[in-house]
Write a structure and sequence with these properties.
467 residues; Metallo-beta-lactamase, Chain A; Rossmann fold; seven-stranded mixed beta sheet; 22 strands; 32% helix
């Protein structure tokens, strides 16, 4: 048995890991899109590093585009096997993949207009809306915490990862020549005591572990101050300065956490009377999916549902639907909060809102999640004085704020707690994936102290045999 790492290897995007059995069957763990990798992004997404027609099964950890975004391309290039995932992941993946396809089609049209003027050949999108619709048919939802047999030699089980709605850790039991071994893939590990979701679950002893390491060198601040920080930015920007607070937020996970936090503040009488807009059709759909899966909520949210039938809604909240409504926000003079996708500010309506508000000191751009260093959000986080948006240079006059503790990824203590159910002596090898290389090296030293002695940090397309 071998495993190859074709994405999220020494970076935090493009998750793809391919297991090849001795009998030739192949299991793909995730099929994510690379995001925020600069000029290299498109070429990375066009070359899998393996033949899609040779993949037998795919198992999906969760719906984020950096884990699902190339599924339609995988199918378009010949994959025809089942894709196992949880029920909520299936529901979220449908809306996310259709949205991804629409963005690509629009972006390609824009690019091809410029290329036509330059006499350059036309480009094709990675996939179309029709490709995405076809690929969704291959998603096969299953329940948490049940071993299911997908092949005479392969069993799979999902346990709660606590990252976003439906997110799961994947556990594979693979039997070769009478010997059964368990491979565990963490997917993205959430935080213990998350505001909305259940904590990551314990899982059976594994032989090999593929573990995310996004915040392997970071200790998040407590969650409570994040609520206070959000209210502080609203008060300082909207009430004191009369400006707009622009919050790039992932449609799935971060937007719902923000709405839940604001709802709690409103119930407690702490939320200033300011209009709050969710300007992302995808976020609206994702919030509806979240509401449809209360089985993933933690006890705190479940208790709140007994007295508040919608913990993601409150007076003053408005959902923006049409493009014209979104554009009208740019002409609005009154202070407001605009929550819009994408979280890294690389695409979607938030990019336009940033372009229209970045040059006024009274406004604030508030980053509330991880941003790839080369993304627009990442450059703003690093203190860029000038940024390029849609080919135009903008001076950064608006305040740029960061709330680091509002992350769906666990910090090194959360990651260590996830591993606490394992006996380090029984782990043959632990692979660190989904992390920046310098962070992974720090986390590797931390894990050594915890007793995990055989730790590897694979590079892209690295392949290794598993004994």
């Amino acid at each position: 048995m071998k495993i190859a790492f074709h994405g999220a290897a020494r970076t935090v995007t493009g998750s793809k890991h391919l297991i090849t059995l001795k009998n030739g069957k192949k299991i793909l763990l995730d099929c994510g899109m690379f995001q925020g990798m600069g000029k290299e992004t498109d070429s990375l997404n066009r070359d899998f590093g393996f033949d899609p027609t040779e993949v037998t099964y795919m198992v999906l950890s969760h719906a984020h585009i950096d884990h699902t975004g190339l599924i339609p391309r995988l199918v378009k290039q010949g994959f025809r096997g089942p894709i196992y995932c949880t029920h909520a992941t299936r529901d979220l993946a449908e809306i996310l993949l259709l949205d991804s396809a629409e963005i690509q089609e629009d972006d390609i049209k824009f690019s091809n207009k410029k290329r036509a003027k330059e006499g350059a050949p036309y480009l094709q999108p990675l996939y179309t809306v029709d490709d995405a619709k076809f690929a969704i048919n291959f998603l096969k939802p299953v329940n948490f915490n049940n071993w299911i047999t997908i092949d005479p030699d392969i069993q799979v089980m999902f346990t709660d990862a606590g990252h976003i709605v439906g997110a799961a850790c994947i556990h594979l039991r693979i039997t070769e020549y009478g010997k059964t071994q368990q491979i565990t893939f963490s997917g993205d590990i959430g935080r213990y005591n998350d505001a909305i979701l259940k904590s990551p679950a314990v899982f059976p002893q594994a032989d090999y572990i593929l573990m995310e390491s996004t915040y392997g060198s970071t200790l998040h601040a407590d969650a409570a101050p994040a609520d206070d920080e959000l209210l502080r930015y609203i008060h300082e920007t909207c009430v004191q300065k009369g400006g707009k607070l622009i919050i790039p937020a992932f449609s799935v996970g971060r937007t719902q956490e923000l709405l839940y936090t604001l709802n709690k503040a409103q119930l407690a009488g702490k939320l200033p009377k300011v209009d709050i807009f969710v300007d992302s059709p995808l976020s609206t759909e994702a919030t509806a999916v979240t509401k449809a899966h209360p089985e993933v909520f933690n006890r705190q949210v479940s208790d709140l549902l007994k007295k508040d039938n919608d913990p993601f809604d409150f007076p003053g909240l408005r959902y923006v639907k049409s493009v014209d409504e979104s554009k009208n926000l740019n002409f609005r003079k009154e202070p407001c909060v605009i929550i819009s996708a994408s979280g890294m500010a690389e695409a979607g309506r938030v990019k336009h809102h940033i372009a229209n508000n970045i040059d006024e000191q009274r406004n604030t751009i508030l980053i509330v999640g991880y941003c790839e260093p080369e993304s627009l959000g990442g450059r703003l986080m690093r203190g860029a004085k000038e940024v390029s948006i849609y080919g135009t240079r903008f001076e950064v006059r608006a305040e740029v704020g960061v709330i680091r503790s509002m992350s769906a990824h666990g910090d090194y203590e959360d990651l260590s707690q996830w591993l606490a159910c394992q006996n380090p002596r029984d782990i043959k090898k632990l692979f660190l994936v989904h992390g920046e290389y310098d962070v992974q090296q720090i986390f590797k030293k931390w894990l050594f102290k915890k007793g995990f002695l055989d730790i590897e940090i694979p590079d892209r397309h690295y392949e290794i045999g598993l004994t």
